[in-house]
Amino acid sequence: MTIKDVAAYCGVAVSTVSRVLNNHPDVSPETRSRVLEAVDKLHYIPNNSARDLVMAPADTIGLVVRGAENPFYTPIIRTIEERCEEAGYTMVLHQIPVGADEISAGATLVRSKRLKGLIFLGGRFDYSRAEGDAIGIPFVCCTNTNQFGDLDKSVYSSVSIDDYAEGYKATKLLIDHGHTKIAVLLDSVRDHSISELRYAGYRQALVDAGIPLDEDLVLETVDFTMSAAYARTLAALEARPDITAIFAVADSMAIAAMKALHNVGFSVPGACSVVAIDGIEISQYTIPTLTTLVQPQETLGEEAFKTLLDVIEGTAPNRHVRLETSLREGETLGKARS
Amino acid sequence: MTIKDVAAYCGVAVSTVSRVLNNHPDVSPETRSRVLEAVDKLHYIPNNSARDLVMAPADTIGLVVRGAENPFYTPIIRTIEERCEEAGYTMVLHQIPVGADEISAGATLVRSKRLKGLIFLGGRFDYSRAEGDAIGIPFVCCTNTNQFGDLDKSVYSSVSIDDYAEGYKATKLLIDHGHTKIAVLLDSVRDHSISELRYAGYRQALVDAGIPLDEDLVLETVDFTMSAAYARTLAALEARPDITAIFAVADSMAIAAMKALHNVGFSVPGACSVVAIDGIEISQYTIPTLTTLVQPQETLGEEAFKTLLDVIEGTAPNRHVRLETSLREGETLGKARS
User: Which fold has domain A3-51?
Assistant: First the structure.
């Protein structure tokens, strides 16, 4: 299939097809639409590298995802990709392991591809000024506020929930159901990321309710894998069978914790309640259904892209968007056993 | 941060830094490594669009994923992206809805970006010759064999399990446990994709065991969503409480079916066994643990990329790789109730 076939099919000159494909103005609307229809119908692929070189990769956006194994990110990635497509941008996805440094990965991406902007999904919240400078193009932290870093708020954007407030809310739910032996299941209390913030909310909720912090009930897993969450919960239940509730900082960890509870014969929520934050699709189908604070995943993706586009196109300055969760009332929250 | 800062930091001329960045041969190894270290350390980003234009987007590979909501694809996408990175390629991800046509999406991608090759993840198995021609660059069908299409095997590659054989195997497992009232939960018996093939395996296993096909036990959901799988199972159990086993063509559908079984008071596997194909991480944590034929997800991604690279670089012709599943013995397979 060549440009000549398209021209023959439409009964126009090759140069006319070329003008249509190159968006020249001197083609009648009817001819233009006839040619474009034929291009589609015949599956013609313009094979003009020089033109592609100039047109194609100009509007590329990088998406750096840390810990993409988490199904929580899937709808966010899909939404960002859809919005990119609609706006005529290409999305280049770069996934990095949980332990890797997304800023240097982002800087490398910027250096090796021609990017107009970057979105960081997941990751650390402590980018330094030097790291911010290393990016050198507009960027948005999605599900990340960078509140531990010293970046000037005006040099980047962020779109996320208020992790501290939501951690507080989840813990308060358990306290309101009479729980005092509340374990928190998280990556690390000093991960400079969501675990640390949600843990701070947990602590404050305990303080406000007059419940002393019990270090044994702080279950750190070192990573976000389900296998680590499972093993850590199992060990905690053996050491401290008086636990009556678990606040997991992520749905996936909560699902692993429920499996551990089940395997040691703790009924949920009879013997132990479980509350989480995220709201991934699959946690609607766990047995029992997980009670969780649902993040607006599509909206997070949409806002991240919209914010980035505004900054790239200069229609608005960097901004920091906070979104709310909504409680999905599942079946894992009950009164504390006495 | 400019090229001058890098030069000053290293104590070399600006032109030397430039030569290193442009891979000119006339720089000593020590100077080269000193400059590259400084570039990394100072987070210097070369700001030379002309050079980027020529160098950067040349080696781009497109990945078209249909139904990316399925967590089954996550490790495959991650693996392909990692291998691309290692080989110096950029991966452009394009996700399309389950109902969309990946071939025309792929052709558009090829037309609008400069791609060296394409990987289709998921999707139809019935590409026509014209559709194959429309791609115009090397492509690999991953988890897809295109066996319903009329493409010449030499014009594309594929990497997948043998869906027919694995459907047979899953059904045979249930038959060997004494089941005869075996429901099959799938998208559609005529989806020209994995459902149709795994269903054919199911039918053949029944035939070989002398069990007549019972149309009531063929549970079509029209799509791969968990909500549809849940609703369809619920309706089937009401209409046909004599069902003693379910073969779900995907883990995610099996998890939804288990929820439906639970909600109508069917114990698993006491009242009803469940067997699936896929082996996503989360199905290790369902209660009870899902018994499933695990696809080698990382290997699927690795083989897909390796095959594409061989074809792009001309080191090997198109090939068709079949991989085996391995049985994960969970807790959802039991003897048929009598």
Answer: 434 Repressor (Amino-terminal Domain) (1.10.260)
* Cα(B66)–Cα(B122) distance, integer angstroms: 5
What region, left, alpha or beta, does residue A238 occupy, with left being phi > 0 and alpha being psi -120 to 50 degrees? alpha
Does this complex have an ipTM over 0.90?
no
pLDDT digits (tens, 9 = 90+) for A149-179: 888 999 999 999 999 999 999 999 999 999 9
Taken as a whole, chain A contains a residue count of 338
The model's pTM is 0.80
Of B78, B111, B255, the CB nearest to A46: B111
CATH 3.30.360.10 fits A163-294, yes or no: no
CB atoms within 10 A of CB B119: 28
Question: Looking at the domain covering B57-161+296-323, what would its CATH class be?
Answer: alpha beta
Are B255 and A285 a contacting pair at CB < 8 A?
Answer: yes
* Residues of chain A contacting residue B46, judged by C-beta atoms under 8 Å apart: 111
- Across the interface, of B78, B92, B111, the residue whose CB is closest to A68 is B78
Contacts of B78 in chain A (CB under 8 A): 68-69, 95
A interface test, pick of B83, B287, B332 with most A CB neighbours within 10 Å: B287
Distance between terminal CA atoms of chain B?
A: 77
The answer regarding whether domain A56-161+296-324 maps to CATH 3.40.50.80 reads: no
Q: Do A45 and B136 touch (CB under 8 A)?
A: yes
